[in-house]
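TASK: fixed-backbone design
INPUT:
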């Protein structure tokens, strides 16, 4: 499948794990794919400058397993030459596509004129897209937001991105200035879709597959982000609300994948935030969290999870 046809020919609706810094690493992508093998996954957003200047160090962040495919590598920056260099490396690594981040609202990113700041510089945004499209045979997509303060330039931006060679666009249905507590506004996306000839995906405020299907309307698919944190079952077609006993095998697998990828000291530190979220709704969650935030080995994680399962099954107090 050629780069230009990849997204058009991909089975609809397209359902994807959104790129999330600190969360959508290889371990979490594997977990989400085990719940629903048909989803698309994205890497954490990765610096094009970093890939250009320190490829051996930064490419570790992009490592992936064949079971995660199709997996899209997301990069950010503002320099065409480093985007081109990063694109060639990503193609060599065997990714299914490249996504250009033009929507991240983090202050540090925006201050550097990356991410959503590119919505204020359409010419540069389109130049970046065109440069990457010319440098690789992979499909090039763009992820952005409704706009800076409003969606007044949404159509112009997306039509320009399409003309520059983007083969798919995903839009987070909030502006840069809107906090996440504000409800996502999907109606501009439905209007935009009628103007584009390439697939358009929606993102923002989705609680799971059913919610995504209810909002998709004329769009080609959707991405789920924050709702998947500690809950990869949001992607499940058959069991989106498993009990804790049913969750344990995947939680253990997540810990094992992360520790195998990053080593026990780093992996244990990084899995702690996931473990805390996995158990937030169970009885005595506060007490279990006090143990989970201090785990230092895979054996300790598995032992605590086994005790949690036993305690819950017997309705015993934690002590």
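OUTPUT:
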């Amino acid at each position: 499948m050629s780069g230009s046809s990849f997204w058009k020919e991909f089975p609809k609706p397209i359902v994807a794990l959104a790129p999330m810094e600190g969360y959508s690493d290889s371990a979490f992508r594997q977990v989400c794919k085990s719940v629903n093998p048909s989803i698309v996954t994205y890497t954490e957003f990765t610096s094009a400058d970093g890939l250009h200047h320190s490829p051996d160090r930064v490419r570790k962040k992009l490592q992936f397993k064949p079971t995660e495919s199709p997996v899209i590598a997301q990069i950010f920056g503002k320099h065409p030459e480093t985007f081109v260099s990063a694109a060639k490396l990503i193609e060599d690594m065997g990714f299914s596509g490249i996504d250009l981040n033009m929507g991240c609202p983090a202050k540090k990113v925006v201050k550097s004129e990356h991410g959503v700041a590119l919505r204020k510089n359409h010419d540069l945004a389109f130049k970046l897209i065109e440069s990457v499209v010319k440098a690789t045979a992979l499909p090039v997509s763009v992820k952005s937001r409704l706009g800076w303060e409003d969606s007044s330039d949404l159509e112009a931006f997306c039509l320009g991105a399409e003309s520059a060679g983007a083969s798919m666009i995903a839009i987070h249905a909030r502006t840069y200035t809107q906090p996440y507590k504000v409800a996502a506004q999907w109606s501009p996306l439905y209007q935009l879709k009628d103007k584009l000839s390439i697939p358009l995906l929606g993102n923002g405020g989705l609680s799971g597959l059913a919610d995504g299907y209810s909002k998709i309307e004329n769009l080609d698919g959707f991405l789920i982000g924050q709702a998947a944190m500690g809950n990869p079952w949001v992607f499940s077609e058959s069991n989106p609300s498993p009990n804790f006993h049913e969750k344990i095998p995947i939680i253990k697998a997540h810990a094992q994948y992360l520790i195998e990828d990053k080593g026990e000291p780093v992996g244990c530190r990084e899995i702690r935030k996931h473990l805390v979220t996995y158990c937030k709704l169970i009885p005595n969650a506060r007490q279990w969290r006090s143990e989970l935030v201090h785990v230092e080995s895979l054996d300790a994680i598995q032992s605590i999870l086994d005790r949690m399962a036993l305690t819950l099954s017997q309705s015993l107090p934690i002590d």
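COMMENT: The mean pLDDT is 94.
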